[in-house]
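Below is how a single chain appears once it has passed through the pipeline. First comes the sequence as given, then the structure the pipeline wrote out for it. We keep one example in the README because the format questions we get most often are answered faster by looking than by reading.
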Amino acid sequence: MDIRVLLANDPGPIKSQSNTQAWLKKKGWILVSKSYDCKKLVHILLLAALTSKKLSELRNATMAAVLLLDNAISDHVSDTLANLVATKALSQIEFAANRLNSLADFTAAADTRQAEALLALNKATECLTEVLLSLDTIVLSTPMTISAPTEHPAHPTWAAIAASAPTQKQTASPLLPPAPNLTASAVDIRLQQCILHDTRMVLVEIDLADESAPKDCSTTDNSALCNKLNHHLGEVDHADTAMDTMEDGEMLESTMWKTLVLGLSYSECGVYVLEFATADATYRFCGYSTDEMWDIVTANFGHLAKIKPKAYNLIAHFIPCHGQFDPSKQEHLHTIKDENGLEPCSITLASWLKATDRRSKYQAVALLKITCSSANMANELLKHCIFISGGQVITCKDLKEPI
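Resulting structure:
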């Protein structure tokens, strides 16, 4: 039963805390202060109950003590709940404030980059305007001449066509690149630019303990190393293309290759990032690095340097984790390749996304991280479902979480 209902039906004089103080004064207790807290009043009521000789006074003192204790408990519970709600709300507000500060920093950085790009565009516009003015001046200063009437060539004969046919030793003229697709969306254009930029990048991993590796990685030394590497690549290109000559000994200009490094930078993890002029230059550099005759990587980056292969990571969902499948074993990866008709070196590595010792004992499926050797193979796995451990699974790209 509720204590307040009990007090309301009780014929005694005590109905509230103010009634309690009035009743104590009536019984001869001298209360010095105008308002006592609940703890002090409870002590006085218990003392009054112990010293009382009448059953009615004992009952009234007990009921008053119960009323004060009920009020104290209710106030304590309310204060505790209010503190918990305030703490939770403040934590959420602090988290939102941190996210807003992070977004503000990102927006400020983006505004700075946009301002720099706008200044560069303004400068380029001024240069183009000067070029157009120079071209207009040249056109106005050039005397106008009347050209002679053009003569239509005679119809070719079969003998002339046969004589003008290219020989087997002649090289075909280079094809013009296809016209750009003006209907492509901005997302497709950015994706194509990222793919083209990725095909021109090569990572060279060095051993920091190797004495023959470059020691100083400053901007000046990196520039000197880039010039040295381009000089070495020029010699290798000349020696490689010299094998393709005509019968009279003259070299074909169309077969002259140029493997050019546009930029070179060093990362703190012991990796040099090389950016080449074209994707063909990147392909030739990787071919030179595997050919012992050229010795292009070890001669410039140390005896233990090597090209770090690119990794294209995918996430496979709902893989059975209680069976015999173990992604750390190569024979199980070969089984995946054989069951799905993949190339032998298409999957280089696979591992569970979550450590096995952190799984729940009731967990039946898990996520698998798959590393592909090429972007084409990763795209094929994204477009089509694959079979792992007898089940059909779907894959998605391993996206990094935003900071």
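The CA atoms of residues 44 and 234 lie 102 Å apart.

See the next section for the split statistics.
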